[in-house]
Amino acid sequence: MSAEATNPATPGPVAGAAARWRARIDLRRLGRAALLGPAARDRLPDAIGHVAEAHRAHHPDADLEPLRRAWVLAESSHRGQMRKSGEPYITHPLAVTLILAELGAETTTLTASLLHDTVEDTEVTLDQVGKEFGAEVRFLVDGVTKLEKVDYGAAAEPETFRKMLVATGNDVRVMSIKLADRLHNMRTLGVMRPEKQARIAKVTRDVLIPLAERLGVQALKTELEDLVFAILHPEEYEHTRELIVDNASRADDPLAEIAAEVRSVLREAGIPAEVVIRPRHFVSVHRVARKRGRLRGADFGRLLVLVGEDADCYGVLGELHTCMTPVVSEFKDFIAVPKFNLYQSLHTAVASGDGQVVEVLIRTHQMHKVAEAGVVALGNPYASPADTSEAPSVATGAGADEERVDPTRPGWLSRLLDWQAAAPDADTFWSTLREDLAQDREITVFRPDGGTLGLPEGATCVDAAYAQYGEDAHACLGARVNGRLATLSTVLRDGDTVQLLMGQDPAAEPSKEWLEHAHTPAARIAIQRWIATHPTPETPEEIAERGGTAGATTEDVQAGRGDANPFRVSAAEPPVADTPDSVGRSTAESQASDTPAADRTGAAVALVDQPGATVRLAGCCTPVPPDEITGFAVRGGVVTVHRVECAAVAQMKSVGRAEVGVSWGDTAGCRVTLFAESFGRPHLLADLTEAMAGEGAEIVSATVEPPSQQRVRHTYTVQLPDAARLPSLMRAMRNVAGVYDVSRAQTPGA
Fold this sequence. Notes:
GO terms for molecular function: kinase activity. Belongs to the RelA/SpoT family. The protein is an alpha+beta fold and about 750 residues long. The chain folds into 4 domains: about 15-230, Hypothetical protein af1432 (Orthogonal Bundle), CATH 1.10.3210; about 245-375, Beta Polymerase, domain 2 (2-Layer Sandwich), CATH 3.30.460.10; about 440-530, Ubiquitin-like (UB roll) (Roll), CATH 3.10.20; about 550-750, 2-Layer Sandwich (Alpha-Beta Plaits). Strand 9 and strand 10 form a beta hairpin. The chain is elongated, with a radius of gyration of 36 Å.
């Protein structure tokens, strides 16, 4: 971290990145050249020679004629206009264009960049731009022009940033120009009042820097961070600068020593590679200092290893981990799973002999280009497959009916565009945009079909559902995370596999509780939008005030009209389980509530080997033919019949109770209690009872417990005309969307 340069925008020297940018261009010299007027038509003006040189470094065969004509129009249009710094205004579009040229932007972007202020600040019209430079340049200039007043007036910010996002979605090059424009303005911000500097710096920090991160333009993002850091935190900035200066004055450099060792290892392995030291920028050093306390020499930078092919990246990794001491916990593979902003690299760390840990980044030259410039490095995202002269490494495609297709548009941008369109108003959009951009880390979760979802850190299954299905996620019933059932409130971790369990009801309704677990704008806005357009049902208190009832009858359950409150419905006959007479009975007997077989209409008949004994089928396990059964004598000459695997059987045996032989008699019908567990969703009861009725089951009683973490527990006592239909009934219940378990009644053992 060496070279420093004085910047009027900051209270002290700025990061090396800023110095490198300014070393490329002398704004005052260019300003004087601009005042001399356009050059002859047969050669490029001297003032944009730097731009042409930088552009040809990335695109050797590029046609520079559009740049020459754009310079002529921009210079003549801005002639006589001055910036607040006292420089000719033309120096600003020149500087912006040079920034983009250094990043590798293609000719169309550079042409639009030279012209980006002409429509806003001169008499040049969009029609004139379109006529002279084509529809694509016109579109870009129009998009940037609409964003020129983005910072003025807090009331205008929400709607202005909505327009910015739409413009970015239509063509990411609009935002590329805007970011370069903001970088040059931040460099020269020192001529403004301190309060205005702070306001512009805050907007840059809150919105433009996160957008630069998401577009992968790290070269712009890091310098913007340092400039904002200097303005908003001058004392911490100065302290960080002193740390960097002190480290640069040290005689020994552990980074240089380890870089030499890495070169030696790779040379012996026969892997062609370039190993360079990448000093951390100011904000990065500040973050490391806050995390680790006292900084050591290796903390001020990282090693970057550049190779030719993807396979070489893993070869380098293997050699470093074999020949040096790796810090395995620091390994990350962003090649196999790229970041949401196109970034690809292998990250690892190795320890030096004195215990210092050096971070190492391993990538190809093409990966490095994209890591630095993001979408800017990908050339023209709308080029046809045949036109790849300026974007040789970009996968492109032509849409049907000449539809504009952007193969480089990141998934996060598509999601933002979707939810901004659904936002009910600009203020909601603005608040959720800021919340989303504040998420500076993103995780990747996998879908069972092999796809991936990019979500902010802290996202839940609710967020995953809306990221994958949009508003269709209203029908989400639950999820499996890494193969196990999970609540929708489950927080996801990087690398999790998420299977979303979806219902088929097109009129499905989201739960209001989901808002508590939704972290992404897509989820929150979709849920809020549904709530806003659907009246809230009456609460039990409101029903009581008007003299109504919140109860639900058996018919309500069977028709799916039961409300969201817990309810119990019963037929005319008593529930299957009588209140036990616990006097003189063991705990196991109290658990084994039973019902006389003679009192149960159409129930299966159990025969007992004791003449005159009354037989009751135990309610704890509700035995039905052809279950294997046993019996126990209880008070009053009653024999209770249990399934042999019932927990009560083991308990009564343990206290010395003798078994009584029992067997099945008439099996024409049976009554059984079933437990069903499901995810809560509208119309579930209607679907479930309809499935049960389809199997010939008559519901004798039903209980639905209050939802707990989106899960609902149901208890049904049903009468079946034939015990043999029980397995079919249970399968039909499990096949209802949202139901994930159906079991026979079984009282747990003590």
